[in-house]
User: Fold this.
Amino acid sequence: MFLHKIEIRRRQLDLEISEVARLSDVAPGTIRSIERGGRTYKVNRETAEGIAHALGVAIGDLFDETELSDLGRPGARGGTTFALSSRQRADVVCGSCHLAIPIAHSTCLECVA
Assistant:
């Protein structure tokens, strides 16, 4: 059985998902989804930092750099949010990281780099 590094660390600390969610200000469903590996897109770096901080480890202890994105929506803590304006909305998704992108781009700015 595969366990995500978050779940391993959470169990070491004897914490429930709800406790990690409260400490990191990240929705319990987001943490559950990351632990299950059910995400088809990268994890927002601010969200990952919040979870790492709540678990008392460095972000690199929980996530590989390839799993992280500076785009997307961070947790409820605030910070920069990537959103398309109503004029840009469309069913356009980056083929690499699966984030919504403006129609004018074929891949998101992060995947171009």
